[in-house]
């Protein structure tokens, strides 16, 4: 009742703003599909917009927006640019340009795909090792929208076939195997959708490790690495841990329960031609690698990627298809020359990294090839100086 009271108050605040929106725009239908079967939640919402103008606005509740890791928008099946709109109380808004893309039926299909991290709450928060771990997902019962909606539905996909509990203040709803289906709900006003309260679903958590689990713990992770990888290793502070070549199946030393932590090191080598290319006309080198981590079932709270470039690299620039924090530093090794300043290290950081971020990024730089000889020449010069001293020293002593 307390939550519903808060959202009913929101209706009074948002109602004035909604009235000032373009009255001709409406949602002929909304279909929302929430995939809560994994450790991240993907929400795919399809708006069939009628009477659309030059742009369309969609809303995200602020408690979900704070955990937004990735979002993309499509208009009539094509990717479209979007930008943050007016900040509303309890909602974040976004605007997507439509540009008169109405179909023959007079509607525009706007599809949003949002991925959220850390929105599944353990329920209860503490369990015995032998008990099953249940998770709770909370979202708005209606899809919030500043436009009137003729009809909408919501399907929630769960990790198990029969959820333990499901709560909602609206009807109808039903359970279909692993899916809880809400709706259809008809003739919704902006006040309804922006005040409609919450729906909660409690379900058993899906264990990581593709089936290798015990109770509320997991023991195995699977990394997808390039087929040309060689010299694969996986170790922790104690030593090497078992792996399977190329598939890289990682077995932890002990089962991982909620709240437990572990640390390990892993790595491999690949031929340079698999990730590095050079433009013979401009002399520019391009390193192409995959962002993110090789584990499909994990998301990363804070990811740091360091690209160590050869000494003497210049005109360095990163081409990443999403926003990252970048910085540069220098690394000095035992044969680096003080004149060249050491090896340049490009550092990229991003929070809330999910599987959708595991795409190629590129680092471009220029490098003068003769600089590759300076370290061998240093070694040759040092050896030559040593032999000259060894040869000339007896002559100096005899005189």
Automatic annotation (TrEMBL):
<keyword id="KW-0812">Transmembrane</keyword>
<feature type="transmembrane region" description="Helical">
    <location>
        <begin position="377"/>
        <end position="397"/>
    </location>
</feature>
<protein>
    <recommendedName>
        <fullName>Dolichyl-diphosphooligosaccharide--protein glycosyltransferase subunit 1</fullName>
    </recommendedName>
</protein>
<dbReference type="Pfam" id="PF04597">
    <property type="entry name" value="Ribophorin_I"/>
</dbReference>
<keyword id="KW-0256">Endoplasmic reticulum</keyword>
<dbReference type="GO" id="GO:0008250">
    <property type="term" value="C:oligosaccharyltransferase complex"/>
</dbReference>
<dbReference type="InterPro" id="IPR007676">
    <property type="entry name" value="Ribophorin_I"/>
</dbReference>
<keyword id="KW-0472">Membrane</keyword>
<comment type="similarity">
    <text>Belongs to the OST1 family.</text>
</comment>
<dbReference type="GO" id="GO:0018279">
    <property type="term" value="P:protein N-linked glycosylation via asparagine"/>
</dbReference>
<comment type="function">
    <text>Subunit of the oligosaccharyl transferase (OST) complex that catalyzes the initial transfer of a defined glycan (Glc(3)Man(9)GlcNAc(2) in eukaryotes) from the lipid carrier dolichol-pyrophosphate to an asparagine residue within an Asn-X-Ser/Thr consensus motif in nascent polypeptide chains, the first step in protein N-glycosylation. N-glycosylation occurs cotranslationally and the complex associates with the Sec61 complex at the channel-forming translocon complex that mediates protein translocation across the endoplasmic reticulum (ER). All subunits are required for a maximal enzyme activity.</text>
</comment>
<feature type="signal peptide">
    <location>
        <begin position="1"/>
        <end position="18"/>
    </location>
</feature>
<keyword id="KW-0732">Signal</keyword>
<comment type="pathway">
    <text>Protein modification; protein glycosylation.</text>
</comment>
<keyword id="KW-1133">Transmembrane helix</keyword>
<comment type="subunit">
    <text>Component of the oligosaccharyltransferase (OST) complex.</text>
</comment>
């Amino acid at each position: 009742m307390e939550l519903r009271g808060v959202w009913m108050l929101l209706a009074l605040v948002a109602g004035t703003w909604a009235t000032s929106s373009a009255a001709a725009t409406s949602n002929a239908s909304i279909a929302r599909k929430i995939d809560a079967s994994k450790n991240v939640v993907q929400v795919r919402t399809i708006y069939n917009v009628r009477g659309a103008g030059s742009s369309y606005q969609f809303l995200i509740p602020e408690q979900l927006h704070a955990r937004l890791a990735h979002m993309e928008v499509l208009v009539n099946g094509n990717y479209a640019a979007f930008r943050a709109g007016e900040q509303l109380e309890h909602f974040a808004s976004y605007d997507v340009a439509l540009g008169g893309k109405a179909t023959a039926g007079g509607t525009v299909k706007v599809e949003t795909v949002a991925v959220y991290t850390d929105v599944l709450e353990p329920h209860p928060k503490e369990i015995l090792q032998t008990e099953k771990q249940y998770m709770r997902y909370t979202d708005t019962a209606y899809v919030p929208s500043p436009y009137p909606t003729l009809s909408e539905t919501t399907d929630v996909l769960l990790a198990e076939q029969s959820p333990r509990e499901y709560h909602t203040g609206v009807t109808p709803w039903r359970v279909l195997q692993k899916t809880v289906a809400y709706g259809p709900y008809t003739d919704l006003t902006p006040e309804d959708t922006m005040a409609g309260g919450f729906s909660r679903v409690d379900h058993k958590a899906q264990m990581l490790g593709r089936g290798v689990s015990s109770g509320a713990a997991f023991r195995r992770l699977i990394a997808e690495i390039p087929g040309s990888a060689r010299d694969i290793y996986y170790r922790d502070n104690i030593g090497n841990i078992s792996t399977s070549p190329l598939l890289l199946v990682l077995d932890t030393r002990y089962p991982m329960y909620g709240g437990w932590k572990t640390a390990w090191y892993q790595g491999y080598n690949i031929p340079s031609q698999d990730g590095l290319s050079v433009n013979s006309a401009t002399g520019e080198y391009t390193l192409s690698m995959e962002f993110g981590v090789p584990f499909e079932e994990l998301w990363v709270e804070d990811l740091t990627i360091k690209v160590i470039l050869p000494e003497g690299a210049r005109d360095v620039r990163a081409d990443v298809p999403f926003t990252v924090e970048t910085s540069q530093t220098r690394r000095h090794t035992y044969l680096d020359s003080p004149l060249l300043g050491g090896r340049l290290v490009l550092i990229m950081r991003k929070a809330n990294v999910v599987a959708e971020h595991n795409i190629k990024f590129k680092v471009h730089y220029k490098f003068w090839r003769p600089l590759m000889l300076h370290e061998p020449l240093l070694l040759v010069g040092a050896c030559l100086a040593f032999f000259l001293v060894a040869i000339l020293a007896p002559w100096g002593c005899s005189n």
